[in-house]
Amino acid sequence: MYSVVRVCCVLLSAVAFTACTNAPEPSSPAPSSPLGSAQVAPPSADGIGDPYYPNDGNGGYDVEGYAVSLSYDPATKVLDGDTVVTSTASDALSTFNLDLIGFEVSAVEVDGKPAKFEREGEHELVITPAAEVAKGAKFATRVRYKGEPQPSEDKGLGAGGWQISRSGGAFAAGEPHAASHWFPVNDHPIDKATFRLSARVPDGWSVISNGIEEPPVAEGGWTTYTWVEPNRLATYLTTIGIDKWTFERSTLASGTPVVNAYAPGTEDKKAVQARMPEVLDFLSEKFGPYPQSAAGGIYLNENIGFSLETQGRPIYAKWAELEVVVHEQAHQWFGDSVSVKAWADICLNECFASYAQWMWAEAKEQANLDDRYRTQVARNHERERYWNRKLYDMGAGNEFTAVYDKGQLALHALRRQIGDPAFDRLLEGWIAKHQDSNASWPEFEKLAGEVSGQDLTAFFDAWFRSASEPADEFLYPGSLRK
């Protein structure tokens, strides 16, 4: 994710950092132990076990794939959905939950047999199958639902869900949770799954989503668009865009299909997106081969507060420029391919995507990163409200703050601490080790120590686990020390 707050900070950085770089001292931080697996919660639990968002996700099963079928009419704003969730039970399940916000649910089936269901709280769909699902069994849950999707009421940075575009179409995007606004889901990044979307819209409208497109099918004044993502993804990385898109189709040199979609009024973004293959080539040199099944971008004519790394095909706000493309494409490795185990680990996504912008500036614009680093440190020296934002285990609600600016400094300091060869091996090795899975910040610290041959405990404590300015020995390592 790249926030408009971050853009504000970049524009103002030549003068001073304003309140847009500040965050409150984390209050009541959650325990630092990350989720170890998707089965940390008890059977039938209404949360997967993340202390930051206790009600996100659900216990007792692991999702293998989502097959979402829907019809949506922009004239009425009504969505008619039919979703099949294929899962494996990690415990015997007499009941289990899915996350779904709003809608009237008309029927639920488990393995083809009618199941009882009820709604609890804001987003819990509690399902009681006709017969208990045995531990280790693979089972399919079908949910039919209808209604007008509702946007998130959370106004914090990254909030989204289902939103109406100025053209009258709609799109879904947001972090840390958005998928439950339009289909039933186990809504936490630890439970990654494949994704298939078939969306039926009136002729004249079209649909963009994740993955590889199948030929559209027209019938009776409606057209069905189908998109298939064979790579497992975290649920907040799913998306749908319904608009009168202008499509561009091509392939990367590797043969990976590329689909770009431009909403009416965003045709000027084609020049920015034309550099995406160059960006991916650069990032592949740093992080390893491009890890997604498809590539591209979705350009909205909307001034939303963020752009988002929806898997394989990021969503860009109207204000997005090349720097944002670099950031969101870096997420295809850091965040999408290797996803967090818990939201306390968010630096694994945002710190690295933000530092990728520095790496791009160094390689393509001959930026002197040591000078840039020293300037930012000097500007914020003794600014307690800049340094008191933790980069790991920062507390719920503080995830999308320091990771965009302090995170860049911390990673550059790490690079100078261990040297360029070790830093390069660390980035590529991290992706290779955890591709298509989830990982935690403590695991990154461990790998960094192994790759560098250094005891980095004090360094990581100073930069990532503490809410204060690092001591000079950690603030100015290697070539940063004059």
Automatic annotation (TrEMBL):
Gene3D superfamilies membership: Neutral Protease Domain 2, tricorn interacting facor f3 domain
Ranges in a coiled coil: none
Keyword entries, A-Z: Hydrolase, Metal-binding, Metalloprotease, Protease, Signal, Zinc
Signal peptide annotation: 1-18
Domain of life: Bacteria
Entry's EC annotation: 3.4.11.2
Organism, as annotated: Actinokineospora xionganensis
InterPro entries documented for this protein: Aminopeptidase_N-like_N, Aminopeptidase_N-like_N_sf, Peptidase_M1, Peptidase_M1_aminopeptidases, Peptidase_M1_dom, Peptidase_M4/M1_CTD_sf
Required co-factors: Zn(2+)
Catalysed reactions, as listed in the record: Release of an N-terminal amino acid, Xaa-|-Yaa- from a peptide, amide or arylamide. Xaa is preferably Ala, but may be most amino acids including Pro (slow action). When a terminal hydrophobic residue is followed by a prolyl residue, the two may be released as an intact Xaa-Pro dipeptide
Domain Aminopeptidase N-like N-terminal as annotated: residue spans: 65-237
Presence of the UniProt keyword Transit peptide in the record: no
Protein name listed in UniProt: Aminopeptidase N
Region (Disordered): 23-54
CDD domains xref list: M1_APN_like
Domain Peptidase M1 membrane alanine aminopeptidase: residue ranges: 322-463
